[in-house]
């Protein structure tokens, strides 16, 4: 991606259709969520419990990984640990190559976006069919997902209608049912032809070694049960102790993601059927580094529900693609610089008004906006103009003489300026800026 | 901000507190809480400003300000700074005594949610993010406003959505900040309000910046100015 962050933002905010698509889609998710948690005390209580469970797992992560791995192996699954994205890609490709599989179906997985799996496999002549409706749309359009749980959220029904007309040769329609039907018809055969099904994983239950896959469309259960091979790529932190903790998590995940009381399907996969194989790849790819970072470790609590995206006023305007990596929104503005860490990612923690809606919405109580703030303090200060500005600001704000002098000078200068407001650089291009009040005296009654 | 651009909000706050029988002291030589430096990631600069601020407010019985954002900086974020020993002690003393946003102080601390204000007009209220999400003040300003007998309430859609100011965010990401402020201004205009109010000057200045640029004559007043009318 050669565009800069500012260019991506510009492209998004001048596109009124995109603005409308995001506004409509995120508003509906928010409204549903609010209906559910209309008693803030209930939400607070549930998410505190969820936070405690996630904190317990993450604080004892290595023990839980060992326990889960042993349980899955006992169940007859093959378990791999991938230290990097490159390792994960290679392990998956090796499994396919050894079995001479050239044709796979894929259920929705953000982790495969993180490790950039699709281009890697496609370059090695593996034919991939995305089977989640949103992912399918994105794949047809040659784009990337713009949301963790709703990958095609940036597209309207009209755009999808035009896309399907062009790529699938069906008559143009905006009817969601007809569009879904068209996708379903093409995908049916694919499930039967594919040599392997690839999925992510919402959770792994450490005690029983069960893989939990949550969905609404039924495509995941087809993807992972019809082909002979099932490959699951799962972040190594996505563990829960047992079924009891899963019940609580499901309630929060489901409501936070889509406002549903329970998802359409919840698959618990424990052991391969006779003659079939299940391969589970636990991916690190920077998670160990996060785990060692005392201040940022709490990010591993994330269950990828997307609530922080839906509640974020910045996300709603810039959209998912502006963030430049697999994870957009507040969680992406944190994970991208911490896990991918390219120089251009340093700007992301600043792309927030710190309004705190994300932290208020997070079902596992990650203090997202405070972490954004903390990351800002870690960043190397290499912008000379800002450095000088902040030095001046500090100088004025800690010396009453300098402060009063500066204010006096500004007041004298502004008399000379025509018009109502002050012509401030940057600001005044789009917004009026008030002039300094004629008279002010903060010490007015100090001795009264 | 209050002193330099909107002294009326500060004066109104004093009037309300004095009406309720409190002695108001405005520490001389106070400047800024340092939030712009802190939010931009400048640890050293914000620490020095915080230490200066704590010296100015040393010994106060309680601190009240007509701004949720400044109060949140002192109450919630000074702790994260490497302050010197005496500043830390003063901070903890003040945290125990109480560091309050004005409406929070009136409603939650004094139990006053109705003032005999005489304000007339149709008013829309913008919920400032830091007041709600940092200080947990959910409805104190709304209660105070709705209890003014001559005040007509204009329902503001998405009242809890950020106006896009975000301090230095509005300079670093000026284009994005502008579309966010424009969306907020659209909702204010749709509400049919004659007056827009809120508990934070910075948000109000930001939204007013769009309204004035559009030539709309919707008055923008701080909550304190409305409450102090007629006291």
List low-pLDDT spans of chain B: none
What's the shape of chain B?
globular
Share of β-strand residues of chain B: 5-15%
* Average residue pLDDT of chain B: 94
* Major β-sheet strand ordering of chain B: 4-3-5-6
Helix-residue proportion of chain B:
40-55%
Work out the largest interface and the residue count of each chain: A-B, 59 and 64 residues
Q: Order of SSEs of chain B, N→C?
A: HHHHEHHEHEHHEHHEHEH
Q: How far apart lie the N and C ends of chain A?
A: 62 Å
Lateral strand order in the biggest sheet of chain A? 1-10-7-4-2-3
**Termini of chain B, distance in Å?**
24 Å
Discrete helix count of chain B: 13
Number of strands of chain A: 10
The low-pLDDT segments of chain A are 442-448
CA-atom Rg of chain B in angstroms: 17 Å
Indicate the structural class of chain B. Answer: alpha/beta
Defining key terms:
heterodimer; A: alpha/beta; 6-stranded parallel sheet; 4-stranded mixed sheet; 21 helices; globular; disordered C terminus; B: alpha/beta; 4-stranded parallel sheet
Write structural notes for this entry.
The complex is a heterodimer of chains A (448) and B (231). Chain A has a six-stranded parallel sheet, sandwiched between helices. Chain A has a four-stranded mixed sheet with strand order 8-5-6-9. In chain A, 52% of the residues lie in helices and 10% in strands. With 448 residues, chain A is of the alpha/beta class. Chain A contains 21 helices and ten strands. Chain B is of the alpha/beta class and 231 residues long. Chain B has helices spanning 2-5, 7-19, 35-39, 43-56, 68-77, 85-97, 102-109, 129-134, 140-146, 169-172, 174-190, 201-213, 223-228; strands at residues 63-65, 99-101, 121-126, 151-154, 195-198, 219-222. Chain B is globular and about 50 Å long. At the A-B interface, helix 1, helix 15, helix 17, helix 18 and helix 19 of A face helix 1, helix 2, helix 3, helix 4 and helix 8 of B.
